[in-house]
Amino acid sequence: MKVVLIGQPNSGKSTIFNFLAGFKVRTGNFPGVTVKYYESEIVYRGDKITLVDLPGIYSLYAMDPAEEVARDYLLKEDIDVIVNVVDASVLSRSLEFTIELMELGKPMILCLNMMDEAEKKGLQINDKKLSEILGIPVVKCIASRGYGLDRLMECVYDAKIPKKVEYQKDVEEIIDELEKICGNRLKVILYLEGIFDCKEGEEFKKKLEEMHGCDCSTVMSSQRHALAMHIFESCVKVGKKKISRREKIDSIIMHPVLGYIILFIIFTLFLSTAFYIGDILSSLIVDPLEGLVVFPESIVGSFLNGLWGGVVGALGIVVPYLIPLLLILSFLDDVGYMARAAYLLDNLFHKIGLHGKAAGPFLMGYGCTVPAIMATRILDERDRVKAAILLPMIPCSARSVIILAVIGGIFGTHFALLMYFINILVVFLVGGVLAKLTKRESPGMVMEMPDLKIPSAKIIWKKTYFVVYEFFREAFPLLVLGSGVFGILEFIGITSYINSILSPYVAGVLGLPPVLGVTLIFGILRKELALYMTLDALNVSYPAELAQVMSTSQILTFVLFITFYIPCLSTIVVMGREFNWKIVGASIAVSIFVATIIGFAVRFIPF
Predict the structure, then answer these.
(1) Does residue 38 have a pLDDT over 70?
(2) Which residues pair with 567 in a beta bridge?
(3) I need a labelling partner for 342 at 20 to 30 A (CA). Which of 13, 183, 491, 502 fits?
């Protein structure tokens, strides 16, 4: 049995999926695009059920790539049950999408999620009457607590094909006429929305447009809106709404002045906490492992020593900082603050000619550049290209590990915060130059603001687990193997040869120790690898010990250069898929140019 979860963004659909799927999740790509969906096999009542989590979409008839592929999946795949997850607190709006799904004529369940939020807004939903009107099971849920999910799974076996959607009489007459030409009702609806072609039906389409004075897509949209409101009014009693504590908090954290102060404080605490936790964990892990295994000096021994050093570096330096970073980012996202940060940053993004929606991908970039690049699909083509050039310069969690471990460990968290401030300043300066070159202003932004809520610790841990799992699956082998290869190169003397070739740039331009030439090249694979190999090349165990072998100027140059120069290999590959290789080349060229200018400039700052 294949069960598909689909709903609008922020409806809690993925929370339900994570709760039911646990850790047994497969990630897939739709054919021909990089839009992802998630799939898991679960067992219920002894039956194997394939659970699919499709991207969050507002409508089947929009032009967004995620919405297009989700619609095609629903139309073309063999699906047994559609579970439409809606935010019950905004039911009147959510029902418009439900009506669209009903036209597919497939067995459905309506899941009224976030019932606690609906009740706080004074909404009393008669689920039995709603089920009677729609002709499908309706289940009340609070997914963050697991409430109602057992009932939801039971209803999978009772899913029914929805009742026929009844539009106004004149619209239904046109649909009936077109059904004789197109073959079935679904094709007629798709035709009126401009998705399905039917030249024979143009006469009826024009007639409908003349009757309503607007295009057919607008006619159908207004019909769904009217139906949704009618259903809502039939099934819901709206009581007196009190101004909640969360709304009072919202008025403070989104204040035009206080909001920015709070934003600064939150991210200062975020980075400070990540550093202190990471520093403690790092010392607890590295001390027992350092020097535990030493192989005799030979080409094989050098390779094995390198492998073990990579293991120590990954477990003792990268992971201790990565986990707290991810946990806090997940917490801020689930509590609803990241959307508010994007709202506050809207005006700033207009200064560099980007749409306010770009704030979302840029904030996501502090976690990982790869999904941030993919998230630029919400922007138009010109803004996407601009974002693709700027995003690789945002310090992802891997670069944040280097900033926190090196700058935080040597100079303190206030200097680490200074690195982030410099990074933001440079990104906006480069963005300002690009805005001047393109001479184009972006329009204003309308965005949905999810309610502030207490997040589920289980969900936060699962989200962190998935990213850490991806790290061990993809990055960990690269770190360990790269370190082993570096050991061989050092043993046979190739590193010295490469370093001598790069010395005019590394030592002459950047003022760094010549031995770091190879490490900067390896850093293109993974930024964490550059840090560990730097420690190995300079023969120190901890990032804080770099102060013994490098000057203050060199340390700052190294960290700033790593922050801005060529993105990791995964980012380059994803950019190549999302755009074209000219854009990738432009992004790399800008990154190297900016990193070089900054690295060279730091040399002249008196310390």
Answers:
(1) yes
(2) none
(3) 13
